[in-house]
Each structure stands twice: as C-alpha cells, then as structure tokens.
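Example 3.2
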Amino acid sequence: MANDVFMNRSIEMVSWQDYRASNTGMVVFYSSDPVSELPIREVPEQYPSDILPEPNYETATFGFYGCARTKIRATFIKSKIRYLFFITKYAGTDADLKDEYLITGYYRVTKIADVKKQHIRYCSDYSCLDEKECFALRAEESHFVSVKDAFRVTPQQLKAWDFKGRITRQSRILLNEEQAAAVIEHIKSKPDIKEQYIEETARLQPHNGSEEEESE
C-alpha cells in the first residue's frame, strides 16, 4: 500500500525523461469498481489499503504511486512500446455488460522516470528493492470512454491478437502497430469522459479518520 505522504507528492518531483517508441501497444489489466456504472478503477472501501490508484488517470501516470507490476513496465520500455491500453473485466452496475472484457482507455506514453528511490522511501509496501530500476510511465495524451463506448474484447478478438490463456492482473497483451491503431481509432471516435472518471473516483473515496472527526 502507498503511504499518504507519497500519494500527495507531485509528479513534478521526479525527473522525467523523453521516451522514444514505435506506435505499438500493450494491453494491461485493472480491476473496475463494483458500485459505479462508469468503469473507473477499483476504489478502496477504507484506508490503509493494498489497492493502488492505477491507472492514475488524474495524472496520466502508471507506476508512479506504487511499484506493482514493475516487470510489465520494464518490458513496455524495453520493447519501445508507445500505447498503453487498459482492459477490465467489467464489475460495475450496467448489467448488460457485467463481466465483459472491455478496453476503456489508453495512454500515449512520452515520458518515463526511475522512481525506485521514491517507492522505497515513501511507500509502506514495495516490490522493486531487488530491481535495478523501477520506471513510471507518463502520457501526454490519454482518453477514457463510457462503458457502452468501450472496445469489447471477445474470445475471437483475443485469438486474433494471438493471446492464449486467461486474462489476469499480470497479463500483458502485445499489439502491433496495425492492431494498436484499430483500438485507438475506436476509442478516439468516442467522447473522452476522463473528467467524469476523476469526479466519480473522488466521490467514492473513503474519508480518513481526521476528516470524519472534523466533520463531527
């Protein structure tokens, strides 16, 4: 779990480096929240929590507020991938799409930063101690859509992407330029409702003890 101290740190506190890549893509999994119609990330019911704020659409970063899936991000950078796509097994309140696999948004990554020292210093739980580096990704462009506008990932689609097995938190689906472009075209053709994601996530955030005491 991430310390509150680190959660409040500005992303400008680290030195971001320019990142060059091809227009390929990687699809990564996130858990969506069960009490919202919007396919926002899972929001903890209380703090402290092991649930990290990923994808962090508020700051368009991935891997800044916690070092889970360090190796996935390392593979992303080593392979010079440009687009990071976010897929979820929809857990929200729209019964028609319950348990469907949906790509709900993407990042166009243009900056990276080694945040290993920050994770070790500020996070209560970290997994990158034995890693040489732990990179965070930062996007100059991000786009998130409603659950009905999401890109549906059917078994046939997974087969077309040559992905075998079950989608898990550790899964990474690699897309070539043509495959990535098709997903981008679909997502960009729909309204970007990222601000609604941010507002809904903030609304569902649990209050800490000090805030509750002040309200009383």
